[in-house]
Every structure is written in C-alpha cells, then in structure tokens.
Amino acid sequence: MLRRPLLASVPALIAALFAAGAAQAQEKVLNIYSARHYQTDEALYANFTKATGVKINRLDGKEDELVERIRNEGTASPADILITVDAARLEVADSLGLFQPARSKLLEERVPATLRTPNWFAFSTRARVIVYNKAAVKREAVQSYADLAAPALKGQVCVRSGAHPYNLSLGAAMIAHDGEAKTEAWARGLVENFARKPMGGDTDQIKAVAAGECGVTISNTYYLVRLMRSKNAPDLQAINAVGIVWPNQASWGTHVNVSGAGVLKHAPHREAAVQFLEYLASDEAQGYFANGNNEWPVVKSAPIVNKELSALGTFKADQLPIGDLAKTTVQAQKVFDRAGWK
Ligand code: FE
After folding, report:
1. Distance 22 CA to ligand 1 centre (A)
2. Is the separation of the CB atoms in 132 and 139 below 8 Å?
3. Beta-strand (E) ranges in the chain?
4. What was the pLDDT predicted at 36?
5. From 105's CA, which of 136, 182, 219, 255 has a CA 20 to 30 Å away?
6. Which residues of the chain have pLDDT under 70?
7. Coil, helix or strand at residue 265
8. From ligand 1's centre to the CA of 271, what distance in Å?
9. 36 CA distance to ligand 1 centroid (A)?
10. Per-residue pLDDT reduced to its tens digit, 244-276
11. Could you give the domains of the chain?
C-alpha cells in the first residue's frame, strides 16, 4: 500500500485525540482537517473553544493529501470540516462529494453571495495582481492580464507553473469572461514572453522581478504583504524595487481567489461544524483569519488590523461567483497545456 507522507507523519497524539473524541460522544469536539498553517489561526481555535466549550482537534496537511485522506476514510472519517485555499481546490473537493450543505441564515447574511456556494464558504480573499520592476517596465504597459501577452514584453515575463491552481483559477476566470479562444491566444502570447521556464512560487517570481531577471510577473497579494512586513533587509529591498498593478480595472476587474471551508459529508459533529463556520464569519474571527495570512475578510464589517495590507488600497474585484470558477478550470488546464505553459 502506498503510504503518503501525511499518513506516516500523523502524530500519535492527534490520532489518540480523534479516537477519544469518537469514544466519548458526550464531550463536545470538532475535528478539523486544515491546509492552512498560520500562527494566528491558533488564537482563532482557542477563542472558539473558549466561547463554545467545543474542543478542536486539528490535523494539518497539504490540500491534496487531506482530500485523499477524507476519500479513503469514507463514512468512517472523523473529519467534520475541511479548510483549504483556492476556489478550484474547494470545488474539486465538492465535486468529489466530500461536502454537505451547511444551511445557515447567519452565513448567508454575512458571506457575500459571490463568495459562497451551497456546500462551502469563502472566509478570506486574495487578489492575483501584476508585479513589475519599476526601473525596467512602464506601469502603463502592464494594466491588464492581456498586456502580459503583448509582444512588447518579449523575454520579460516570469510566472509559476500553468498547472498551479492559482494560475488555473485565473485561466478559468478569463475563459468565463473572454472565452476559450481568446484565453488560449493570451496563454500563447504569455509563453512567448517568458524570461525563463516556470519555476518556484509567487515569492520567487517577485524576487526575480526585483532582481531584474525578468520585468513582470503575476502574484497573489498576500505574498507581497508578507514581504512588506518582513524584518529581512533583502525582502524589503525586493518589495521596494517593484510596483503593483490591479489588473483589468477597465474591464471585468482583478481576479480574486479565496481561502474557505465546508462541512464534510460524514461529519460526526455536524452541529458544532456549522457553529464553527458561523464563528469564522464573526467580526473577531474574520480579523484573525484574514490577517493571519495577510488576506481580506469576506465580511465587510470585519476590522483589518494590518497596515501593510490596508496600504495596498482598494480595487475593482471580479464579481464572477467563486463557485463558477470550477466550471472552466479543467478547460483552463487544457488551454494552458496546448499553449505550452507547463
Ligand atoms: Fe499561496
């Protein structure tokens, strides 16, 4: 049997906690599988327990591994909630039938309609923006995603793999707005403009742009804010060398992705699970949850206590319902494959 790293590395303690939770049905517990690992999330879980008396057992892992684990566990799964990032990944989990509807008036009231589906809810948002080298590229030349495919930027584009969910979700949004043919032409132009083969994550691209290895890239906003908040001189130098553009302000808006969660189909503690999602939508939790990864809360009244994040300012965001991205994600992968965006 193939043993995945996650399965092999589950601390015995957590396994014991889950077992204890199942054995003592009286004790109020909630089992969370999480692909978010941020220090500030700890405070969030502790506050929920304090407010409700529900003890949280958490299993951290990579998205794909957690999804695989839930599928393998089937009806015997102890997991109540899956928390992860990226709309496409949440939709994959949903399309595999892992979630159940979490009907809640409170969630419907507080989470905007474009940021939820019947089965899962977004709790924070991040935007996919254009980052350019201020000394090498003119801001006016990179105002839209389409601009990145213009022949004028030949040899200037660095970007992570076209197979990565962040780019697939962007491609899915482009297909939804502009159609497949236009998106494929765009991807081909983008590949033509590559300064190097796609490698590394968004932060690696930002640093390459700052170093002048390339002129422009696409990045999620929280990576930029993370660099802004860094105590590390090279990080600050890098962030000072680049400019940030909200793409597509003159058309459908900047592509936005999410971090989200849903109640799992075989959740042993359904009531506590819905209660936890409602807690995540409270002003207090929204502040923690979003600030923990330098993202924006989905609830408008929630405070943003993050001056670097606030310094990014406001922008016109794409209003495509977040659950709709999945409808064109597979198509986006095929389009990027044909265009050679590996
Ligand atoms: Fe990320």
Report:
1. 33
2. yes
3. 29-34, 55-60, 81-85, 120-133, 216-220, 242-245, 256-263, 296-297
4. 85
5. 255
6. 1-26
7. coil
8. 30
9. 10
10. 999 999 999 999 999 999 999 999 999 999 999
11. 2-124+258-303 (3.40.190.10), 126-255+317-339 (3.40.190.10)
Q: Three-state SS for 120?
A: strand
* Spatial CA neighbour of 315 closest among 128, 161, 175: 128
* Predicted pLDDT at 41: 79
Distance from residue 222's CA to the centre of ligand 1 (Å): 8
Spacing, Cα 90 to ligand 1 middle (Å): 14
Cα(62) to ligand 1 centroid in Å equals 12
Give pTM, 2 decimals.
0.89
CB 158 within 8 A of CB 201: no
Burial of 244 (0-12, 13-18, 19+ CB in 10 A): middle
Measured in Å, residue 201 CA sits from the centre of ligand 1 at 8
Residue 14 is predicted with a pLDDT of 55
